[in-house]
Amino acid sequence: MMKRREFMAIGAGASTLALAKTLQAASFDDSGLLVKPITNGAPLQAPASGKIKVAVAMANRATVIDFAGPWEVFQDVMIRTRGSSHSEQMPFELFTVGATADPIRASGGLRIKPDYAVDDAPQPDVVVVPALRGNAALHEWLAAVAPDTDVTMSVCTGAFQLARAGLLDGQIATTHHDFYDAFSDEFPNIQLKRGLRFVENEKISTAGGLTSGIDLSLHVVERYFGRTVAQTTADYMEYTSENWKV
What superfamily in CATH does domain 25-236 come from? Predict the structure, then answer.
């Protein structure tokens, strides 16, 4: 059973000019700490029909809210103008991917059997990586699929997995506040931003701990379908935080 404070991170970067412009637009508190999410992602082109495939990485000790929050966001998006059937109006298709298809144990002992192993998973449009016990097979899969995704995102210490897959080199990132120092020590070439709900590069995004994955997911929905659709999704979820709005 996973302990919240246990370190669960076992097992082509943004240009200087783009980063400078992004930082100029960010907000800081009196101590110089960034308090507003850093956004560097352009609007995303959703297909006129068909599904946006969302792959959620799975491995032992995956933190439930890290993946359940984003899962709920994406599966609650409904756009009535996309077709006449319920299936057509739900634009996201979600599935889980593990190193193998063998069951894993998430936080609290939740048993999950991945829909796919990395060897037979479809190419996703969006990848969600929660805090989990990483492995070489997962890192290789992330490195292989990320270049062809619209967004590859982590939640909490899932940022360690993106970093170990080589996806954050020379970029900006955030993670759970308990692991700032460990992240900085292990990845000195990644610009860690503290005190943020999420940080975006062009295609790679990272969220802070736990519930911040909901904020980043709502922002991804906004990038695909606009503020109104994202707000409608948040309202349906009875999610009143506005930290996803930037």
Answer: Class I glutamine amidotransferase (GATase) domain (3.40.50.880)
